Amino acid sequence: MRFLLVEDDLEVARFVIKGLSEAGHAVEHAPDGREGLYRATGEAFDALIVDRMLPGGIDGLTMIETLRRTGSVTPVLILSALAQVDERVRGLKAGGDDYLTKPFAFAELQARLEAILRRGHAKAVETVLRVADLELDLLSREVRRAGRRLDLLPRELRLLEYLMRHAGQVVTRTMLLEAVWDYHFDPQTNVIDVHVSRLRQKIDKGFPRPLLHTIRGAGYSLRPEP
Questions:
Q1: Which among 214, 181, 219 has a CA at the least distance from the CA of 200?
Q2: Which CATH superfamily is domain 2-124 in?
């Protein structure tokens, strides 16, 4: 899953990003409401995590209300230190799908994200990716091929998710570095080759038809055909 976290408290942001990244998700961070609105309207995310009080002239509720007026149905989880009932009601009426008060446990945040993705307008959100007999459940983070469960590490899950979202396309090293490793430069290491090799062993070994192909001089492609 790909989430946008709009949070000005860097300590809270690091806590959320670390937890979601370790769970195999990709997280983008915006430190204020103005940048959050710009990112949320210009990019595709599975869900937004938005702080109630934000700098930059646009607070969390204003950001959410603006998004809803544009027709966005992306699920939104509101974070706030304001725990009063009327504040929670304001958040939900502004277009939030759930409201989590600070401080919070990461397990609860994760459970609430899963819940808002399962209900309501989340029906439009794709929760299972499939390529041939390979399946990735985006909520449970389970991977199966021909019904057999495969155990992948968090980084391998992010790599596989990206490849599956771009199934049939040639994915370059630069694309993988930016999307999976958050590098905007080539560190000149074989980190991608190593992870692709490990992923290929897990999803292709023991199956009659390989899915992960190396395109010489270009990159990689996940597809049933050679």
A1: 214
A2: Response regulator (3.40.50.2300)
